[in-house]
């Protein structure tokens, strides 16, 4: 970061009780055990512990400085541990000690300051389904130096850490924003100040917390209020409950059939989607390294974000040919013995993504197609109906064997119901036949990543 100690104090609103190196820190951390030379440690307050308790450990690791609550900061500064006489000072160079009433808020303010100092363009991505895949595709397609969230660093803690990790030559930040309640997208968007706001869709995810799909749409639309002047909102053609909120966007780009960014024609050849895509900047042929129809829709959203930033479609197509890396547990294919393929898509699940995954399963050539489904979380009072409807969809598209994992999965009406992922793996190992294709999908709380791990241990990779 090109921000020294005094600039950090000004940005965070914290008081510098001890001064250290004149050079800036290299990154921000929140785990003292992972804090090393040059790092700025933020001691966040948790439900059971105050991270300020670990500031001394961070300084022992030669941290550049610490941002902690006033009591912990005063104790450190007065003891001399920050650079005076003391055991830790003997092992480490002088360090900055900042006192902040709320270290998390201080970290968020610093992230916003760094976002502005970078001068990079920012794409914010939210939505009920597909936001991580859109983020991954955009990271691959957008030109220049692109920095994006690692895995699921998309919360009020993860997003500012992501911004503070961005190198000072970053051209574009692609920031996924997660939501669990009203005001959370607004909080993240105020840090990010996006130039482009992508809302992938709105569906019955978090209904348990927010009460209705309309309320979810309103919460997702909070991102529009922090768009920078002249900013663009990227939304589906069928925006549904989002529609009343879109007048708050300065500019609109719609993706999907009939939209500003749309598929003219496409086909899948050996796992690659070849598509001609129309954009306001002209048509372009893309070769996208995936076969799933829902990921083609995700690619449209990412391409629309690029168009909003005036990225040339030809350049995005060229970058697509170099490959797109998806985050863990999102449709990754594992090859087992005897030609068996396991589609490991267990990062998260909701009615929309479940149907999309089942539809994709049925496009895969195989003598049998099996689905191992865990619960879908946070669906509210309609949860049982949503599970039942997904089970009916699996039957309708022709899944050969439906295996439910956990009590909530009973509502899928599965052929077999097991108690936990390990039991599911054992049952699958006994029933799998050569060249079967198996989809494993459920909310993270279902723990279905254990199915893949256990199957690999039982069956072995090809």
Q: Could you characterize the architecture of this molecule?
A:
The protein has 462 residues and is of the alpha/beta class. It has three domains: 5-104, 3-Layer(aba) Sandwich (Udp-n-acetylmuramoylalanyl-d-glutamate--2,6- Diaminopimelate Ligase, Chain: A, domain 1), CATH 3.40.1390; 119-320, UDP-N-acetylmuramoyl-L-alanine:D-glutamate ligase (3-Layer(aba) Sandwich), CATH 3.40.1190; 332-459, Protein-Tyrosine Phosphatase, Chain A. It has helices at residues 5-12, 55-60, 70-79, 87-91, 103-118, 131-141, 158-165, 184-192, 207-210, 213-220, 293-308, 313-320, 351-361, 383-397, 421-431, 449-459; strands at residues 15-18, 27-29, 39-42, 65-68, 96-99, 121-126, 146-148, 172-176, 196-199, 232-236, 251-255, 262-269, 272-278, 284-288, 332-335, 341-344, 369-373, 401-405, 416-418, 437-441. The strands form four sheets. A six-stranded parallel sheet has the order 7-8-6-9-10-11, sandwiched between helices. A hairpin with a 5-residue loop joins strand 13 and strand 14. Helix 6 (131-141) crosses helix 11 (293-308), helix 13 (351-361) runs parallel beside helix 14 (383-397) and helix 15 (421-431) packs across helix 16 (449-459). The longest helix is centred in the first third of the chain and has 16 residues, at 103-118. The protein is globular.
């Amino acid at each position: 970061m090109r921000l020294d100690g005094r600039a950090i104090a000004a940005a965070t609103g914290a008081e510098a009780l001890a001064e250290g190196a004149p050079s800036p820190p290299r990154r921000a951390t929140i785990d003292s055990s992972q804090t090393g030379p040059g790092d700025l440690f933020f001691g966040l307050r948790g439900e059971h512990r105050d991270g300020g308790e670990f500031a001394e450990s961070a300084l022992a690791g030669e941290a550049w400085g610490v941002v902690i609550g006033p009591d912990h900061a005063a104790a450190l500064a007065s003891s001399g541990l920050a650079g005076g006489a003391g055991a830790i000072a003997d092992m480490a160079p002088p360090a900055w000690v900042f006192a902040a009433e709320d270290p998390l808020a201080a970290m968020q303010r610093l992230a916003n300051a760094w976002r502005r100092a970078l001068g990079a363009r920012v794409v914010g991505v939210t939505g009920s389904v597909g936001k991580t895949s859109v983020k991954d595709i955009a990271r691959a397609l957008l030109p220049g130096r692109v920095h994006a969230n690692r895995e699921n660093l998309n919360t009020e803690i993860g997003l500012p850490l992501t911004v503070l990790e961005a190198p000072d030559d970053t051209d574009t930040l692609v920031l996924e924003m997660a939501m669990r309640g009203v005001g959370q997208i607004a909080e993240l968007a105020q840090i990010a100040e996006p130039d482009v706001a992508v809302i992938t869709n709105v569906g019955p995810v978090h209904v348990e917390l927010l009460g209705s799909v309309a309320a979810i749409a309103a919460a997702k639309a909070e991102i529009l209020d922090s768009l920078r002047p002249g900013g663009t909102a990227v939304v589906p053609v069928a925006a549904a409950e989002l529609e009343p909120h879109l007048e708050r966007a300065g500019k609109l780009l719609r993706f999907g059939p009939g939209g500003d960014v749309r598929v003219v024609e496409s086909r899948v050849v050996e796992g690659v989607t070849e598509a001609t895509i129309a954009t306001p900047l002209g048509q372009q042929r893309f070769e996208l390294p995936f076969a799933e129809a829902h990921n083609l829709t995700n690619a449209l959203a990412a391409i629309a974000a690029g168009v909003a930033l005036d990225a040339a479609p030809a350049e995005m197509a060229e970058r697509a040919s170099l490959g797109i890396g998806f985050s863990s547990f999102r449709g990754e294919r594992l090859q087992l013995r005897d030609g068996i393929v396991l589609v490991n898509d267990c990062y998260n699940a909701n009615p929309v993504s479940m149907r999309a995954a089942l539809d994709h399963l049925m496009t895969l050539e195989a003598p049998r197609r099996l689905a191992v489904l865990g619960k879908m979380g946070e669906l509210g009072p309609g949860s049982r109906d949503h599970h039942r409807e997904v089970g009916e969809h699996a039957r309708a598209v022709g899944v050969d064997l439906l295996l439910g994992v956990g009590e909530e999965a009973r509502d899928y009406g599965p052929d077999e119901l097991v108690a936990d992922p390990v039991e599911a793996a054992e049952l699958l190992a006994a029933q799998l036949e050569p060249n079967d294709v198996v989809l494993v999908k459920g909310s993270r709380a279902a723990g279905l990543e254990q199915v893949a791990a256990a199957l690999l241990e039982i069956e072995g990779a090809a």
